[in-house]
Amino acid sequence: MTINTKINIMDTALKLFAEKGFSDTSISAIAEEAGIGKGTIYWYFESKKDLFFSIVEQRGQDYFNKVLKLDNDSIESEQIIYKYIKYTIEFIDNNYDVAKMLITNTEIINNEFKKMMELKQQQVISILEKALKRGQKEDKFRGFKSRDIAFMIMNIAKSGHNQFNFSIEGNIDQKTQKIYDFIMYGLIKEERKT
Predict the structure, then answer these.
(1) Does pTM top 0.90 for this prediction?
(2) Beta-carbon neighbour count of residue 97 at 10 Å?
(3) Residue 161 belongs to what H/E stretch?
(4) What is the phi/psi pair of residue 166, to 5°?
(5) φ/ψ (deg, to 5) at 193
């Protein structure tokens, strides 16, 4: 058994879960499509559910590790925001099938998985909030409630490619710059006098 076999199983299952749904995809169908025996899947994965969550974890781990590295005081606060936006857009653009799999198979998402995702989101919010507070302290950003803005940044970054049909135009760098500029400069031409 090789690592390539495991990747083949995961890629095949991902395709079928995204196309047919979790409930309508059998282990036999995954094995047939992957060109392997059914028992080979059970060599790597305990169950179809284990396979599903392994796909999500494997695809999301690189992205999450990159985001965690942004928790670094040597990176300028503006760069943390920019890189977070870029990493998010890259992840969504490069993992369209994972996003579709998650959205179309909500019946498989259990409380344990939801809690894990909430914990990861809280870590991201914390990194963004820390960067925003540092930017305020350095007098780079206006005063605002940094946690609220961190939530907004996270949600706006995800909008770079949303709901499979609508997307901001451009490549990853262009999308990143558009979102970054909107966050950093807003809509008004001049700063409001308060």
Answers:
(1) no
(2) 16
(3) strand 161-162
(4) -120, 135
(5) -90, 120
Which domains does the chain carry? 1-45 (1.10.10.60), 56-185 (1.10.357.10)
pLDDT digit string (tens) for 90-143? 988 888 888 778 777 778 888 888 898 899 999 999 999 999 999 999 999 988
pLDDT surpassing 60 at residue 53? yes
- Neighbouring CB atoms inside 10 A of 165's CB total 5
Task: Please report, for residues 17, 81, 91, 127, 184, the alpha-carbon distance to residue 67 in angstroms, rounded to integers and kept in the order given.
Answer: 27, 10, 11, 8, 19
Mean pLDDT in residue range 52-77? 93
Strand-strand pairing, 166-167 and 161-162: antiparallel
Packing angle between helix 172-185 and helix 146-158, nearest 10 degrees? 150
